[in-house]
Amino acid sequence: MNYKSINKLKKIIYKKSFKKIFILTGKNSYYKSGASKILPSILLNKIHKFYFKKSYYPEIKELKYIYLQIKKFNPDLVIALGGGSVIDYSKIVNVLKFSFDVDKKIKKNTYKIIEKSFNLLVIPTTAGSGAEVTSNAVIYINKIKYSIEHKSLKPDKFILSPELIIRASKKIKASAGFDAISQSIESLLSLKSTAKSVFYAKKSLKLSFKNYLNFVNNPSLKNTFQMALAANFSGKAISISKTTAPHALSYPFTAFYNISHGHAVSLTLNDFLKFNFENMAYSKSKFNLQKRFKIIQNLAGTRSILELILYIEKIKKKSALETNFKKLGIDIYKDYGKILSGINPLRLKNNPIKIKTKDLTKILLSKK
Ligand SMILES: [Fe+2]
Question: What domains are there in the chain, each with its CATH number?
């Protein structure tokens, strides 16, 4: 953390004179990022408690445990320091009404949102999902992904500190960075996109296309900060437009095979770009889909859809995002039914072209 970020953190903690601070983090995030060398001295005069998350992705059992821990401690400030899972846990715990049948309510989309229980400061250690600015959060119940959505999920404050992001492994950088790219591309094609979301998605892609590969393979504080900004803008874009098919299809890959989120999204981004482009005549969008494709092509420095697809394939390869399903432990002929059943239908609906099960099956079975 540089001088500026540390000062910002101190200001947030001391200005409002918070008394009890709960730190929700992951062991990797906390120690590897270098936060463990900074936070203790800042928290010295504060009553505080740490919780290190265990699950690989946000799931209901751990969410309930965190809720009980926070309720018992009753903090006035929660610092969520970590990647997507840590941030999502903190956002949900802050505003979701917990009851004995909360699982059922989440599944049926009848959950209740209550007033914020604490101030929430988010410090991402990945770049990233942009979860520090989005008004939704993901939770898995029995390996199926659900989304909690409400404007009050948006954290009160966030600090983007490249020093805490730069030490993440190459694998995490590649996956999280690709998430930012895909979110912005999906946002530009989403039926729910608006002039404002297009503005943020363009800003995001401009930064990520320029910095992603260097951030993964040759990280500097500068390109790390640029990617953190790209992720932040992509979060702002999808807060408005939501994501589309590659995200919808990504959740079962994470739940069944522990493939990290951005990597899971990367598995089908190109397939859906191709699908949407080829079926453009059937677009349900009010905007000109061809123009949106042009925007993406131009930002990537490519001149056609084919070049764009090759460009994305190239950055996946150069950032070592595995594309081979067998190597990822997926037997697609055996498992495609299971994968199809785990798809998020809400996200699929935002796709500009209607996607039928037979289209999804075709895409999945084309994988090796
Ligand atoms: Fe994402």
Answer: 3-163 (3.40.50.1970), 170-365 (1.20.1090.10)
